[in-house]
Design brief:
The complex is a heterodimer. By secondary structure, chain A is an alpha+beta fold. Chain A contains 24 helices and 44 strands. Classes of the chains: A alpha+beta, B mainly alpha.
């Protein structure tokens, strides 16, 4: 059977459905071919209840099908209804076998022999491709599945999860709540999962319900069991279910078989496309993820645009007016396409982005034109933005931890706010244009995405951050040219907890280390035991003594938490210092300071032990930590109550939990890390960092729980808002309503609203009582002085006997 | 942020500011008392007596305001530590102020009752102060970095171990393990909490009984029995620690159950005292 259409659309995801709806609206004879028996398969596969974002907010949606942020179910429901109402001709189970022909006469052969003929062909097949099968006998038995809709649907089963990616881990951890789960991964350790997921699965592994099987791959699957190859030999596991999450096969192969050309790079995922998404084969279009669309809205817009183009009515992209406005600040007001080219030429940061990616990036950014002398103000109101200098010179004041201020300049291609991007230590103020400037203000979320998608951008950015850190630590007067030789020979080294960077007594090692993130302890060996006499946080230089005084290593330097350090060869650093006597003096003095601190520590070995304990608890990476002196703490929990009273009835600290060493107790409470783990993966960018270092969550939180999972210290809670409270005197005199503090019983009860709908939970964490007069309520409300919030560097220093 | 980088106790708040002020107030009250010699002798009815009485009454009201203050968590540059420091030292100074106010005239009347109640309130406060200074350190030492929940979990674990060890012994031993499991209580009555003792503790009895039973056994069984005694001994140690933890917590709360009601009794008596004085004015 052969049917003929004006356009055939392969795939019924957001791009395909939107194209189908437009074609139906235009009265084009069309068909949407869907391989599965349901539309939008990728989104159908999202976990139940997943909240789908509609970013970027300022990108207009141009489609006959509507789309707004909401739960997976809501969105799919709307799409289904609207596609039907629009009259989209959707054919399910259409598995495409071959594509032949040319414009005006394409022939699409389906499994089963049916042929669809179309004048134009739109490939909207997504980038998930086909799900990878286990590839062993029995991998299509009914108890083997390749996706998991609702982990709560299974109970008291034995389930084997195969795979080591994020979906495999997330599924395994969720299933382990009420099932016996094995997760089998062919590698000897986690290689590609997010840190938060690794923490979660390792934690679950300590419980009774989940076992991790590394270096294990399936051999065969039979009804009721799976046989696996393990390092110890073959192992049979009786199970109710096998869930394999092995990712998809990228669609490039399929596209190439259709005759579509790709750029020379063999890793390229995006084919050569015209601005109207046409491939080198006339009449054959690619839209959606394989065309570089990064978000659902872009896919839907492309679906609309491609049909308009085919029907002879080419439209400018939906984001054109928005971008035109954003880029209006550029000198000479060039048209958008020229402005984009200009930006790309001027800034190597964007080299690897496709035009579509660059457009999306700029949608979230803001271009500013400033005249010489004008102060730079950020428009977003969030301090988390980064300024990229598109052209010109900018002057700014830097204030370091010790309060010393220094004026520096930055030029084209440079960033402002980059260290603050990851670190809370340095303050930038008085930013102004030294010459006429073009600045691009970039949202944190976009930068994170940019760095993830372009290795070159990542390199450029990382290098800049390292330069800033070195300037911070050594001298702000050093330029990139000065530091270049150090960086070119430097090696980035990662150390796990307990790994030694430097070993006492070593004579052959003259490298110095610059601590980029993490912290280290400095210890020496005497009387048969190791005594800690110092702690160095991120931003410190260690190992200079052996180099400067040409002697064996005087102390051991150990990573107190996971630490990343830049190893600089002594033979490069020595001449660098010799050429700069001022810097050499500064380093000599820093060494003297450290030696003196060491003496104070050695006077009282407990100090070292306490410092060691604190650093081991991750306090070294904190910028502001809550510490309780248990010799003073009368366990009244007024700190928790004050916290709850200041923050919607929900305490963001747990006084009793957390480790104690001697009398020093580290309660569960946010430390406002130097490099906040929680900020690593926040879809709506709701986590912010202020100039003072406080990390806080704004009201755009969607309750996804990523931050809570990523926090290694367990200080973020997912909670519904607390109950309303009466005035204090009403409670005190008449016993009305819940009293001060968090009412756990009430919090537990109040899970549904008055319509019986489950209340959403949002992430709650300490915000250092940001904007509250008087500072952290927990400290103000402590009656005995047991609770203090301190910058650990200051605390260590006061422990060292110096003020 | 102005907060210091180290811990500072409420007693030494701002280099003992309130201690100095408390001593100052006491001296200021003592000086005129010794300098002046009223014709009818010292009593509450002289102008000095009225002045000291007014200061004392206002102090009492202000000291009691702490109960409200500590529950008000609103923004502001207040520090509860500062308030408590002032509460302690000014409360102690009140002994001097109020005693001088009496002019050492005591009798079986409402006036002396108010004074007596005030002294009791202050004494209970001193007891509380003693508890606050002493008990937190004891509590931390007793906990050994283990929370009460963790202790409870470990106790359950040891119960399991003990049951396992008892498997290799006669039923009588198994009964003892069961007794230890079912009849060991942590907390309970007021007396048990405050003394941290249970004269009828199932584990203590089980240990004593197991030692009795473990006489003259063959070497293997004897070793097993000793192992059981050791396991129960570990449990007993944990149970005792948990009991002490509750005791310490109770001690830190208990004194307030005396201090606060007495304060209210004082407030009522003080009101009666003032009304009586003005009723019989002249």
């Amino acid at each position: 059977m052969t049917e003929r259409y004006e356009v055939a659309i392969l795939g019924s995801g957001p791009a395909g459905l939107s194209a189908g709806a437009r074609a139906a609206q235009r009265g084009m004879k069309h068909i949407v071919l869907e391989r599965h028996d349901i539309y939008a398969q990728t989104i159908q596969r999202y976990q139940k209840g997943k909240y789908v974002m509609a970013t970027p907010d300022n990108l207009p949606l141009r489609s006959d099908i509507s789309f707004a942020a909401g739960s997976r179910e809501e969105i799919l429901g709307i799409w289904g209804e609207q596609a039907e109402a629009a009259g989209v001709n959707l054919r399910y189970g259409a598995n495409v076998q071959a594509i032949e022909g040319e414009k005006g006469n394409f022939r699409v052969t389906l499994q089963g022999g049916d042929v669809v003929e179309a004048a134009n062909l739109v490939l909207a097949i997504g980038d998930q491709g086909e799900l990878r099968k286990v590839g062993v006998p029995g991998d299509d038995l009914p108890h083997v599945q390749y996706q998991l809709d609702d982990p709560e649907a299974f109970e008291n089963e034995t389930i084997v999860v195969i795979g080591g990616g994020d979906s495999a881990i997330e599924n395994a951890v969720a299933l382990a709540r009420q099932n016996r789960v094995y997760i089998a991964y062919r590698r000897p350790e986690w290689a590609r999962a997010k840190a938060g997921n690794i923490t979660a699965v390792e934690k679950a592994n300590q419980g009774d319900n989940l076992d991790i099987l590394f270096s294990t791959s399936p051999e065969k699957i039979e009804t009721g069991k799976i046989v696996m190859r393990t390092p110890e030999g073959s192992r049979e596991i009786a199970c109710h279910r096998v869930i394999a999450r092995l990712g998809g096969i990228p669609p490039r192969g399929f596209l190439e078989r259709c005759g579509i050309r790709f750029p020379a790079d063999k890793n390229a995922r995006i084919p050569e496309l015209s601005l109207t998404y046409e491939t080198n084969v006339p009449g054959l279009y690619v839209i959606g993820a394989p065309a570089g669309a990064a978000v659902i809205k872009q896919c839907m817009n492309q679906g609309y645009e491609v049909i308009e183009t085919i029907s002879g009515n080419p439209v400018e992209p939906a984001d054109e007016p928005v971008l035109a406005e954003k880029l209006a600040g550029l000198p000479g007001r060039p048209p958008v396409s020229e402005a984009l080219e200009l930006i790309r030429q001027q800034l190597p940061l964007f080299d690897e982005l496709t035009t579509l990616q660059l457009r999306e990036f700029l949608l979230d950014s803001e271009a500013h034109l400033l005249f010489a002398g004008e102060p730079v103000a950020r428009t977003s109101g969030k301090a988390g933005t980064i300024l990229l200098i598109g052209d010109g010179v900018v002057q700014l004041d830097l204030t370091d931890k010790r309060g010393a201020t220094q004026t520096v300049t930055r030029t084209t291609g440079d960033f402002i706010g980059d260290v603050g991007f990851t670190s809370g230590q340095r303050r930038i103020s008085n930013v102004k244009a030294a010459t006429d400037c073009v600045l691009i203000e970039m949202a944190r979320r976009s930068v994170v995405k940019l760095l993830a998608s372009s290795p070159k951008a990542r390199d450029i950015f990382e290098r800049t951050v390292v330069i800033r850190q070195l300037q911070d630590s050594l001298s702000g007067e050093l330029t990139e040219q000065d530091l270049g030789p150090l960086l070119d020979t430097a090696e980035v080294k990662r150390f796990a907890v307990g790994d030694a960077l430097i070993k006492e007594g070593a004579t052959d090692d003259k490298s110095i280390y610059f601590i980029r993130s993490g912290s280290v302890t400095i210890s020496s060996h005497a009387d048969g035991k190791e005594t800690v006499f110092g702690v160095e946080p991120a931003g410190s230089l260690v190992g200079e003594m052996a180099l400067l005084y040409d002697r064996p290593r005087t102390a051991t330097v150990t990573a107190a938490i996971d630490t990343e350090a830049l190893k600089i060869d002594g033979s490069v650093f020595k001449p660098f210092l010799d050429a700069r006597p001022d810097l050499r003096t500064k380093i000599d003095q820093a060494v003297h300071d450290r030696v003196l601190r060491g003496v104070a520590y050695q006077q009282d070995p407990w100090r070292g032990a306490v410092a060691d304990f604190l650093v081991g608890e991750g306090i070294g990476e904190a910028t502001n930590a809550l510490l309780i002196d248990e010799a003073l703490c009368v366990r009244c929990d007024n700190c928790e109550k004050a916290c709850a009273e200041t923050h919607e009835g929900i305490a963001r600290l747990d006084r009793e939990a957390g480790p104690t060493f001697r009398n020093l107790h580290v309660p569960i409470s946010c430390r406002h890390c130097e490099n906040p783990h929680c900020m690593a993966d926040c879809p709506p960018n709701a986590l912010n960092r202020d100039e003072k270092g406080e990390v806080w969550i704004d009201n755009t939180c969607i309750g996804c729980g990523n931050c809570a999972a990523n926090c290694p210290y367990g200080v973020i809670r997912m909670a519904v808002p607390g109950p309303k409270k009466p005035g204090l005197l009403q409670w005190l005199l008449f016993g009305r309503g819940p009293g001060p503090g968090e009412d756990e019983a009430l919090l537990k009860m109040k899970k549904v609203d008055k319509d019986g709908k489950e209340l959403p939970k949002f992430a709650k964490k300490c915000d250092l009582c940001r904007g509250v007069k008087g500072g952290p309520a927990c400290v103000r409300a402590c009656p005995t002085g047991a609770a203090i919030r301190v910058n650990p560097a200051d605390y260590f220093q006061s422990m060292g006997g110096r003020s | 942020m102005t907060a210091a980088a180290t811990h500072e106790s409420f007693l030494e708040y701002r280099r003992f500011r309130w201690l100095k002020l408390g001593i100052g107030l006491s001296i200021l009250s003592l000086l005129p008392f010794f300098v002046m010699a009223p014709p009818a002798g010292h009593n509450g009815g002289t102008w000095l007596g009225y002045t000291l009485g007014t200061i004392g009454a206002l102090l009492i009201l202000w000291l009691m305001w702490l109960g409200i203050r500590k529950r008000r968590y609103g923004p502001g540059n207040w520090s509860l530590k500062g308030w408590l420091s002032a509460h302690v030292y000014l409360g102690l100074a009140l002994i001097v102020v109020a005693t001088l106010h009496t002019g050492f005239e005591f009798g079986w009347n409402i006036h002396t009752l108010a004074y007596a109640l005030m002294i009791l309130v202050i004494l209970s406060g001193i007891a509380g102060l003693f508890v606050y200074v002493r008990v937190p350190t004891l509590m931390t030492g007793n906990r050994r970095s283990q929370s009460l929940d963790a202790m409870a979990e470990q106790i359950v674990e040891i119960d399991g171990e003990a049951a396992n060890v008892a498997l290799g012994l006669s039923d009588e031993f198994a009964d003892l393990v069961r007794m230890s499991q079912n009849e060991t209580r942590i907390g309970g009555s007021f007396r048990r909490i405050v003394t941290a003792r249970d004269p009828n503790c199932g584990t203590a009895r089980a240990i004593a009984r197991a030692r009795d039973l473990a006489r003259n056994l063959d070497p293997r069984t004897a070793q097993r029995a000793a192992e059981l005694v050791q396991t129960l001994g570990r449990k007993q140690e944990l149970v005792q620690r948990a009991r002490r933890d509750l005791r310490y917590k109770a001690l830190m709360d208990l004194w307030l159950y005396i201090h606060v009601p007495l304060s209210f009794a004082l407030l009522i008596t003080l009101t009666a005292h003032i009304i009586a004085v003005f009723f019989y004015w002249g």
